[in-house]
Each structure stands twice: as structure tokens, then as C-alpha cells.
Amino acid sequence: MRELIAMIKRRLKIKAIDQRTREIVRTGTDRILAQALQDLGRTEDVEAVRRRYPEHAEDLQPLLEMAQLTTHYYAEVPDPPGGLAEGRARVLKAAGEYRSELRKRALASKVRPAWRRSSGLLSDWNSPLKWVSAVLVVLLALMPVGQQLVWASSNSIPGQIFYPVKLSNEDRHFEYIQNPEVQVMLALALTEERIGELETLVSKDRPIPNVVVDRMDELTQQALVSAAWTSEDLTPNMLDYIVRRMQYQAEALDDLMVQADETQQATLSRAQQICLEKRVVAVAAVADTRAFRTAYRTGRPERMPMPVGGPLGGTVTPVPDEYPAPTVTATPQPDAIPRATEEILVGSEPWLLPEGLIETLSGPVETSSFGMSSFDYIDWDSPPESESEEEVTAGQQADNGEEVAGPAAAQEQPSDDANQLPATPPGQDVRPDTPPGQEVRPDVPPGQEDRPDAPPGQENRPDEPPGQDKDKPSGGGKKK
Amino acid sequence: MTSEYALLKRAQSYDEQAIGELYDRYAPRIYGYIYKRIQNTQLAEDLTSEVFVRVLEAIRSERFWHTSFVSWLYRIAHNLLVDYYRSRPSVLVLPLEEHLIAGLEELNVPYVDKFALENLQEAISQLTQAQQQVIALRFGEQLMSKEVAEIMGKSIGAIEALQFRALASLRRILEVDED
Questions:
Q1: Which of A257, A301, A461, A477 gets the most CB atoms within 10 Å of its CB?
Q2: Is the ipTM of this complex over 0.90?
């Protein structure tokens, strides 16, 4: 019973206070309180302020005391335990990430090439650029046209006007070079050139044309076919070299994909897949070099010219037209190996590399793994390559329509896992330190995934501060 | 000292030095404000850095502050606190910090004692978010009504009324508790 009475008294008291509060608000006492609080802030003397407002003294005094108590309560703030240093580092790190992303966007938005933006310099005839331009014009006039094209195209990248000229120059190199080992080196060097072009395109945030990846496919296939035409004792080393280069290039593409956008990543992924596939083939070929040589020698991809007589010699007889069309595709089919004849064999004349060829080759050419420079003189006086007895027998049986036992190497393909690089899901490369759950929307604060553009509190009124009522003008903040 | 306008222009392009200087200027204030609201130093420090991270995100989305930068910071801090409270269904009232108790003896005000401050802490936690924000900005940050109005996006009259109700509510809660 006593508790019930006490509860009723409390409720009545609260009701009285609330009623009084409502009356005070109706009469504008809240404005007087605000003024009184300003006075209190200056004098810090409740009694003095109360005397200034005698008619409201009774209502103001408890509120002023409460305000003073609250001010004291808020007065002391302990120092942050970490001195705010950790937070500062976190903020600066985030700023760095946003800054790099801003630069990428700025590069992508540039439409006009640099030479057009700097055209103002050329119009200024007092600029040093005038003299540089004049020298270039004289040099170009003295050079033969073809050489000018070669010079102009050597540094071109996909999408530029001279890029097809660059590719045709590379094809011409293959026509001149008859040595299969050099061809392997050249093909792999040109795939490195494609990697360089991809890096340039990614850094400039330009789309990657399919011609680059297609070219990589052709070059890597060329490397394999050329490796099949090297001498039998050199083939394993060439294949091993191909394996290592393909692995290296796949890893380089993997690193490049981190910097690329989604569109570029798809193309880079295809290029990487090509490298990995060729690596698989090369690894399998190392396991059974003989089958590889036979299959690839008789496969003959369309773009691969047979080692015919070069400009400086060679008495290799080209393959006759009546030779049966190869049934093998890019992946050699060990069970369909036509008989290799003497027509395919390399001639006995020594092969000399044309002078100056080394300088015209694009990209670096590494020394082969067995310590022999790619450009050493190769003495072909040694007996030409001859097939093993097994190969000859198998070929004769095929001609006779007999079943041919497949090569002993039922090639144990290495598992895909061994050749796959760790997959990086798209979109998770740029912000590796993004907390879990935020990888997909790194720019959206937690809890605001639906309103990425709204600062906190402004989800419903993105153009207005929170709580802003259009009908009631704001208090008028300081505009800066 | 670099003018704020110049700093902000550089900060829009994520200039590291400008960002750092803005942080050094305003982080202590924001930390103090957040601490006054939640009375937890570690959490206040974490939320302070989160405020500036949100600033970077908002700059990136090109929705910059509309009035003053510091008002915008307070607003973001308040919203962060709202999110914090929402994530915790029950508000934990921490014991009164020792520094407040130690300072009581120096304060020659008869009605201020340890129990009053402890009750006040609990009483403030029972106010609405808007009332807590008003008294924290007015009496904690010592801002004028005009500045508080800008931060909260309300009129000065609304702020004064809110302030009055907040103090009246505190008085009511404390007086009822005394009974």
C-alpha cells in the first residue's frame, strides 16, 4: 500500500513538472533560459544571473544549476590511450588508397592524347621544342621510308596506328631466321614484348585489344613448334626453357591483374590461361620428347613456316604437296602420327645467321639453359637428325593401314592444380586490407550499402543535413 | 597555419599532408565529443578515426560539406554514435571515472557531489538522442546555440527548446531519484 502511494506521488510530481515545463515553453521561458545560460557562461554565478531575471527566478535557478552540473560533468576528458596516432595512420592510409584510385579515374577520363594537349608548345616558336622538332624532321627526311616505319613502329602499342607494322616486322624476322632454336628464343622474346604492351595498356588504363592475346597464343605455339625442330639433344632443354618462361609470364600476368580493372582482367586472364596451357604442353613434352617432336613436326600450324632454305643457304627440300595433310591440331595427337620422311629433315649445310639480325630482333634473348648462346654458329655438318627405329616402324605401319601402338608415354598430364596460380577473385585486388565483408563495396560505409552516396545521416535527405526541415529555415550556419 | 579553405581544397584530392593537418586540428575535438557521449576512451578513439574515414568516403562521392567542415564532422560523429547505440540494445552505464571524483574536492559547489555526478551520468543516458546531442554540444563542447543549430540542422528556436527540455528532464529524473 505504501509503495502504491509512493508511486502515485511520483507520477503526480512528474505530471506537475511536465505541465509546468509546457507552460514555460508556451510563454517563451526557454528563450530566457538560453539568454540566462549565456550570462552564466560569462559570470559562472547562478545567483547573479537569477537576480537579472526576477520574474523567472524560481524556474530558472534549478535549470541553471543543472546546466552548471552538466558543464562540470563534461569538463574533464581523459587523453586517448593511443594518442590518436593509430587512427591518424589509418586515415592517411585510406587517403592514399583513394588517391591512387582517383588517379586511375583521371587517366581513364583523358580522351585526347598527350601530343594534342601539348600542341600549344609547338605553336610557340620560341620554345626549345621547336629545335627538337626541326632535328627530328631532318632525320626523318634522311631515313628511308621503310626504315622510318620500322623505327616509328618499334615502340608502338596495341591500338596505335603503327602497331600492325610492328607485328609485320616481327613476322619478317621469322621468315629470315631458319634456326629453330633462335626461333624459339625469338618467339618467347616476343611474348615478353606482348607482356610489356599489356603492362603499358594497364598503366594507361586503356582497353586491351584481342589482337594482343591472339598474338601471344600464336607466339607460344610457335615456340613449341620450333622447339620440336631443334636437334634431339637440345629439345628437352628448349622445352624446359619454355616451361620456365611460361610460368614466369603467367605470374607476371597475375601481378598485372591486380592493377587492372574488370574489363582488362578478363583479357589478362585469357592471356594467362594461354601461358598456362602452353606450359602444360611443354611439361608433357619434356616427359616424352620423342612423341612431342614427331607430333609437332608433322602438325605444322598454319603460321609456322617449315625450315626451308634461307637467304644464306640450306638445301632443305620443302615438303611435297602430296604429303598427307596433318591431322594433329595445336595439341599433338600421339595416335595419329604420319611417317616423317627425309624431305622434312634439315639439310647438311652450315647455317649462318645474317649479319645485323641480332640487332633487329626485338626484346632480349636469353642464353639457353645449356650454356649455348642463341646466336652461336651452328655446325650442321653433323649427321642430320634421324628417326628412331620405333618411329620408322610406326610410320610404315600407319602407311599400311595397320594399327599403330601409341607411344609409350601415355602422357601423365600434371594436375591442373600444379599449374594454376592462386586465383584472385575480381574486385578483391585493389583493397587487400579491406576488412572482411567490405570487399565488394569498399567505398560504402558499413550499414550504408544501399546509400553509397549519402554521408552518414543523410540517407533520406542527401541534399539536406539530417533533421533539416525545409519549412523551417536553418539557424544559418557559417558558410565557408 | 594553412587556412582551412586551402586545406579543404587539397583534401578533396586526398593530399596526404592536408588530410593529416585536418586530422590533427579536429580529431581532439571530435574525440572529446564522442568521449563525452559514451564515456569510453578506447571506443572514443576508434570512433574518432572512423569519423575521418567516413569523411574521406564522402569526399570521394563528391558530396561535400554544405556549411562548415567542423559542423559536418560533428554530424558524422553523432550519426556514428547513433549507429553504435543501435548495435547495442542496452546502454551500458559505466562507473564514474576517477578523474571526476578527484576533482570534486576542488569544486566549491554544495550540490555537486559524487552521487550527483553518478546520477547525472545515468540520467543523461535516459535522454533522447537529440537531447543528449544538444547538451553535449552546448555544455560539453561549449558551442553557441547558433553553431549547435547548424550541426543538428535545426533552427535556433528548436535548439533552445530542446535544450530547455533536456535540462528539465534531467532535473525531473534526478529529483524523482532523490525521492
A1: A257
A2: no
